[in-house]
Design brief:
271 residues, mainly alpha, two-stranded antiparallel ribbon, 2 strands, flat
Length: 271
């Protein structure tokens, strides 16, 4: 399960999505998340699925990597589906004791599951196609107008980048610690929930210590390189410049949002 978490990983490439300006990619992801909440019919959700699959192919990243990123959310998705399935009123299809399944409940459960999957894939696509450093610079320049009101934009961007950068590292160390504990006879998969929680203590303590060591080493390295946070005289090696392709992607997403709004009036079998 730990190795299935792919958040924060970057896959170098030269696809259309890799070449987009990081500032535009952040804006596009935000707009795409908004677009996921626009459809209310089957036709609209089918269109979002087709667009998402098209973008996955356009990124030239193996589909299995996106599917691996969905596995850790299996229990959250199941819990969400159950809530929408059993606790939504409407036309009753099946009823037994305290369990009642309605037509609207099934529709809401499917829609919510689709929305969660598309949301995870969209955010994963951002980190898959954008290196942490480029993502930091793009986020900082996108939020640079907030410096007028004394918001520490650079520090905020740096914190986010460091967090994303160390997710794969900490996951790898967690896997190693779990393997070492299993070699010593630890059991993480059997017993009650309380016993499983107790079994995680030998993992959390060394993991926390390792995270603190990484933080101290990183702070020392930044001090040795005379890092001083936000500096008005700081220069950047790469100068971002919006290209025609960036505006093409923006127009494409805006058109998609408009189409999704109009598709809310088109229903199949009343859904």
């Amino acid at each position: 399960m730990i190795k299935d978490i792919t958040l924060g990983q970057f896959f170098p490439g030269s696809s259309f999505l890799h070449r987009l300006d990081p500032r535009m990619k952040i804006i596009l992801v935000i707009l795409y998340i908004v677009a996921l909440f626009l459809p209310s019919t089957v036709v609209g959700y089918l269109l979002t699925i087709l667009v998402t699959v098209f973008l996955m192919l356009l990124s030239k990243i193996p589909i299995k990597m996106y599917l691996r990123g969905l596995r850790p959310l299996f229990f959250i998705a199941c819990f969400t589906v159950i809530l929408n399935l059993f606790y939504t009123g409407g036309d009753v299809i099946f009823s037994f004791w305290i369990i009642t399944i309605t037509k609207q409940g099934i529709v809401n459960a499917v829609f919510m599951l689709t929305r969660i999957m598309m949301l995870v894939i969209a955010t994963s696509m951002l980190t898959y196609t954008t290196s942490p450093i480029v993502l930091t610079n793009g986020l900082e320049r996108l939020l640079s107008p907030l410096k007028v009101i004394k918001v520490p934009v650079h520090d905020f961007s740096m914190i986010m980048t460091i967090a994303l950068r160390f997710i794969p590292t900490l996951l790898e160390e967690t896997e190693k610690i779990m393997s070492a504990q299993k070699a010593r006879g630890a059991d993480f998969e059997s017993g009650s929930i309380i016993n499983r929680a107790r079994a995680l203590i030998p993992i959390l303590i060394p993991l926390f210590r390792s995270a603190m060591n990484h933080a101290v080493e990183l702070a020392t390295a930044m001090e040795c390189r005379c890092y001083s946070g936000d500096n008005k005289k700081r220069t950047h090696l790469v100068k971002f410049k919006l290209r025609f392709a960036d505006f093409e992607a923006l127009i494409f997403l805006i058109v998609l949002m408009v189409i999704l709004i109009f598709l809310n009036n088109i229903r199949i079998f009343g859904v």
